[in-house]
């Protein structure tokens, strides 16, 4: 998948070839920064304000001053999409770090570094149709996972374990209570009730997660923001994970055990369709 040419930085719009980072960059040396991944469907941002709100919440939580307002940032990102003439399905990655300075743990008195770029990105249609496998992994992360921080080592280690076991996602748990996926939120449906972990400090408050809760409530499904155990997960009628790039992804097998006889359940399918409609997706994956 290819990157579009122009990148937005703290110094304005430049080409991707011109983006250089010094060694002494706090994002590189300390993971001292926050990020967002935002979906673009046929050139139009999805859930843009929600992502920008979360970016500002993450930045505030690590005492990082964002050098522009939310509205300025939204306008600049839209300009970036226009400048790149984005017409396809794509995703935007943006990160902001505490800047470049000689390496010292405490905060330097320098301006933040920022960049945002857009990459073509297709919807994972076959997987959305058929569902995916997942494995379980210990959630060894810190307590402030609501911050979308650049420190992702536990997440990538769990994802790599999943990959090596032929699975799409690692579902994380702390002492047997499911928190979220390595890069997704986790939902189960049992006896027509939808459960997901509450939006507490120890999970990321996913933008897709919020949308799913709204869509499910609107459809009359009972919604419980209550943590559940790995045992409840394995015995669920339906399981799905959510994220910006995975949308509503059915999970049909966990640790070798089939969920809903190995096919996406009816409620999951209903929510997938409702999600497409809400996001303004024109070509359905579920014809
Ligand atoms: N990750 N939980 C974690 C740990 C995540 O990394 C993500 C998304 C989510 C879902 O959040 P949202 O619905 O806002 O995408 C939950 C992104 C896609 C990533 O790191 O690439």
Keywords:
287 residues; alpha+beta; D-amino Acid Aminotransferase, Chain A, domain 1; D-amino Acid Aminotransferase, Chain A, domain 2; nine-stranded mixed β-sheet; six-stranded antiparallel β-sheet; binds N-(5'-phosphopyridoxyl)-D-alanine
Structure description:
It is a single chain. The protein has 287 residues and is of the alpha+beta class. The chain has 2 domains: 3-120, 2-Layer Sandwich (D-amino Acid Aminotransferase, Chain A, domain 1), CATH 3.30.470; 125-279, D-amino Acid Aminotransferase, subunit A, domain 2 (D-amino Acid Aminotransferase, Chain A, domain 2, Alpha-Beta Barrel), CATH 3.20.10. It has 8 helices and 15 strands. It has helices at 26-30, 48-61, 70-83, 125-130, 153-164, 207-218, 230-234, 266-278; strands at 6-9, 12-15, 33-41, 44-45, 90-97, 113-120, 132-138, 169-174, 177-181, 185-190, 193-196, 222-224, 238-243, 247-254, 257-258. The strands form 2 sheets. Strands 7, 8, 9, 10, 11, 12, 13, 14 and 15 form a 9-stranded mixed β-sheet that branches. Strands 2-1-6-5-3-4 form a 6-stranded antiparallel β-sheet. The longest helix is centred in the first third of the chain and has 14 residues, at 48-61. It is globular. Bound molecules: N-(5'-phosphopyridoxyl)-D-alanine. Residues 37, 155, 180, 183-185, 204, 206-209, 242-245 line the site of N-(5'-phosphopyridoxyl)-D-alanine (PDD).
Concise synopsis of the structure shown:
The chain has 287 residues and is α+β, with helices and mostly antiparallel strands. It has helices at 26-30, 48-61, 70-83, 125-130, 153-164, 207-218, 230-234, 266-278, and strands spanning 6-9, 12-15, 33-41, 44-45, 90-97, 113-120, 132-138, 169-174, 177-181, 185-190, 193-196, 222-224, 238-243, 247-254, 257-258. Strands 7, 8, 9, 10, 11, 12, 13, 14 and 15 form a nine-stranded mixed beta sheet that branches. A six-stranded antiparallel beta sheet has the order 2-1-6-5-3-4.
